[in-house]
Amino acid sequence: MKLFVQPSFGLMFNVFDIALSTRLCRLSFKSIENNTYGNTYINNELNTLANKNHLLLEPAIPIRGG
């Protein structure tokens, strides 16, 4: 599940648009299934992701032309 908020500020010209945006999101995994038979280290690492919230900051600069 991924919930996010993404505000952006931009400039519009006759030929192109440019914006600065930052996405702040919360990523959570409820059920993780994997096929890592025989490798307990990878299996344990993947299981630590379940039932936790991960906060991410994703900056972006979209440029549109046309």
Describe the structure.
The chain has 66 residues and is mainly β. It has one domain (2-65). Helices cover 12% and strands 50% of the residues. It is built from 1 helix and 5 strands. Strands 1, 2, 3, 4 and 5 form a 5-stranded antiparallel sheet that branches. β2 (8-12) and β3 (16-28) form a beta hairpin. The longest helix has 8 residues, at 40-47. The chain is elongated, with a radius of gyration of 19 Å. The two termini are 34 Å apart. The model has no long low-confidence stretch (mean pLDDT 84).
Order of helices and strands: EEEHEE
In terms of DSSP E residues, the strand content is: over 45%
Helix % is 10-25%
Distance between the termini: 34 Å
Can I get a quick summary?
This protein has one helix and five strands; from the N terminus they run E-E-E-H-E-E. The chain has one helix at residues 40-47, and strands at 2-5, 8-12, 16-28, 53-60, 63-65.
Highlighted features:
12% helix; 5 strands; 66 residues
Give the secondary structure arrangement, pairings included:
Blueprint: E1 2-5, E2 8-12, E3 16-28, H1 40-47, E4 53-60, E5 63-65
Antiparallel strand pairs: 1-3, 2-3, 3-4, 3-5
